[in-house]
Amino acid sequence: MKSIQVVAAVIFHEGKVFATQRGYGEWKDGWEFPGGKIEPGEKPEEALIREIREELDLGIAVEQKICDVEQDYPSFHLSMQCFRCSIRTGEPRLLEHEAARWLEREALYTLSWLPADQKVLPEIEKNWSK
């Protein structure tokens, strides 16, 4: 089974966290934390900064790792590193996703999250006020 290494940004801003809805592929319409694949030679934090710039035209600061997630999907294994991030520059612009929402803590479990991202939610709750 193919293994994919990815990073995900849990972007906090003004007491809310940012979620995006996939606009393409097998998992289209599922909700996730934005991010993407780590390229050869990239550090996870560098990949995350690049991916968020490409997907959202947004400059972020990577603050701390929240968790690592391992998830088997039908056609691949996903290893995802999740980081708490903040906005440095810009406003999110959806360049690859079909929708996005800023969620308050109470709304965290209201979306149809992708399986790997579901595993991140309890860790986000633990890290909400840090």
Number of helices: 3
Using the alpha-carbon principal axes, give the shape: globular
Overall number of strands: 7
Radius of gyration: 14 Å
* Secondary structure category: alpha+beta
Helical fraction equals 10-25%
Largest sheet: 7 strands, mixed
Structural features, described:
The termini are far apart. The relative contact order is 0.27. The protein has 3 helices and 7 strands, in the order E-E-E-E-H-E-E-E-H-H. Strand 1 and strand 2 form a beta hairpin. The longest helix is centred in the middle third of the chain and has 13 residues, at 44-56. The chain has 130 residues and is an alpha+beta fold. Strands 1, 2, 3, 4, 5, 6 and 7 form a 7-stranded mixed β-sheet that branches. It has helices at 44-56, 115-118, 121-127; strands spanning 2-13, 16-22, 31-32, 35-37, 59-72, 76-89, 97-103.
